[in-house]
Amino acid sequence: MLRRRCLKLSFVIVFSMTTGFSLFLHRLEISEETAPLPLEHYCKNLHDKFLAMKQLKSAQNATKFFMEQLLHRTDLRSSCNASGKLFLTRNNTKLGQRITYEVDRKAFKLVDKMVYDMLPETHPWGTSRGLGRCAVVGNGGTLRNSKCGAEINSADFVIRHNLAPMNYSSDVGVKTNLVTVNPSQITESFQGLCHARRPFVEKAASHGDAHLAIAAFSYGPNTEISFRIFYTMRDMRPQQGVLYFHPDYLMTLDRYWRKKGLKCIRLSSGFMLMSAALELCEKVDLYGFWPFALDLFEKSLPNHYYDNIPAKRGVHTMPEEFMLLLEMHSQGVLQLHIGECQTPS
Ligand SMILES: *[C@@H]1O[C@H](CO)[C@@H](O)[C@H](O)[C@H]1NC(C)=O
Ligand SMILES: *[C@@H]1O[C@H](CO)[C@@H](O)[C@H](O)[C@H]1NC(C)=O
Ligand SMILES: *[C@@H]1O[C@H](CO)[C@@H](O)[C@H](O)[C@H]1NC(C)=O
Ligand SMILES: *[C@@H]1O[C@H](CO)[C@@H](O)[C@H](O)[C@H]1NC(C)=O
Known about the structure:
Elements: H1 2-16, H2 22-27, H3 39-51, H4 57-68, H5 73-80, H6 82-85, E1 98-100, E2 108-110, H7 113-118, E3 133-137, H8 149-153, E4 157-160, H9 169-172, E5 178-180, H10 183-189, H11 198-205, E6 211-214, H12 220-236, E7 242-244, H13 247-259, H14 269-280, E8 283-287, H15 318-330, E9 335-337
Parallel strand pairs: 3-4, 3-8, 4-5, 5-6, 6-7, 8-9
Antiparallel strand pairs: 1-2
Helix pairs in contact: 1-3, 3-15, 4-15, 5-14
The chain binds 2-acetamido-2-deoxy-beta-D-glucopyranose (4 copies).
Subcellular location: Golgi apparatus membrane
GO molecular function: alpha-N-acetylneuraminate alpha-2,8-sialyltransferase activity
Main location: Golgi
């Protein structure tokens, strides 16, 4: 069964990676062996097969790195320091200093009293590092009908993305501790918060008292809209705090993964928070991270668990990020959950 699944897995991945793989597919052998071996075993084989594939050179570079130097949380901690720098706080920011933008490193924002007053004293987790078992929930169509809700709810800390809809509780759960907000979705769905603010506040409230996390200082135009989110929440729903990603943290993280061979224009927010979770949590479980159009049984999947609207092209390279996740999964650094969750009997 597992073997079958992983062959399917390899098929789907290969299938999704365009052109020229028919030879590779023919070489996949299906043995009669029935003894169940861990999925990881097959994914390791899969990984070795990937290494032989010319078309995946850049991913090959990335995976090779991990063969030579295992990813250690300490490595991320000393390089990126999510526990002290994930968000701008009064603890890591001084009144009067300049914040350099993540992408446009020539642009900066002065931390005047107005900005400083928006910052929380410290990170929501204070000085403690252990957030316990964290569930990082992506928005992939693989979550649809997954029945993962209960498992996700049982995590100590749940991270979600782009104010994902919460009306699929049996598949995605109900608990959220941190949810990202993409400034572009405020422009597209909430008129930039220039008019009615209640629809946005209600959307945020569907995540309970979760903090909202925004990349306010990545691109110049994000800043103003992020401030509007801050004031909207402060005035209408103060129990739900707004946090700004530290642009230095995001920049360091980007460099960190580039050095490890990941080639992309910009890391996806899922990948960013997966990295932060590796530093902050004792155990990291990923749900809804599956960038392919087919599931393990070759059934087609919607783009998100809540709709089938295609993602913007050319910004994120999900399959490449996924290769790294698969690699870390096979090393036991994190746990990927694809498809249905086991229902506890
Ligand atoms: C692999 O990485 C090295 C160093 O980063 C680079 O010079 C080389 O071009 C990469 N190979 C491919 C095929 O991308
Ligand atoms: C992480 O950041 C905090 C707060 O800025 C600092 O106290 C700590 O020394 C940093 N840790 C590392 C490993 O750089
Ligand atoms: C951050 O705050 C904690 C407790 O409030 C304090 O112990 C620590 O020294 C502060 N770190 C910095 C870099 O100011
Ligand atoms: C969730 O809400 C959306 C928008 O209101 C709706 O289109 C969708 O059918 C709902 N899904 C479920 C499972 O309730």
